[in-house]
Amino acid sequence: MEIRQSERDFLNMIAEQKQVIYKICYMYAKNQNERNDLSQEVILNLWKSFPNYKAIGKPSTWVYRVAMNTCITYLRHSNTRPKTTPLTHDVSGIIDEGNIKAEQLQELYHLINQLGKMERALVLLWLEELNYQEIGAILGISKNNVAVKLHRVKEKLKKISNC
What we know:
The protein is mainly α and 163 residues long. Helix content is 67%, strand content 0%.
């Protein structure tokens, strides 16, 4: 079976953006099974909207927006979802923790998970070292609003971590 160029382009984009997808899912999921479900849901939504994707900006901006919207929608409807059987494929191996110790990373995610949905998205994008303009474009807010919200979130995280 021959793969069409658009399918090849999509697979290449997913390969390049898989860590972004996983990090976002990691931020919003409670456990590994939910992360796997969210990752699959994000990839499905990316595939559905890929024909309409216009490569105006960076692909990562589009992937961030689709992934965050998918995760937030998924969480909104998670109470009404039936219980699922986990798949045997584990996507957790795609996260690269670099020099950060696993337990420090876990603690960071634990603190961030105590934030609201929009605050989590903001922190995640900031941790990805996106500039305020890019963060604003993904979240649909102004650059100045990003700065104000980020300052407030940092203060909130300081309070949470000192408890």
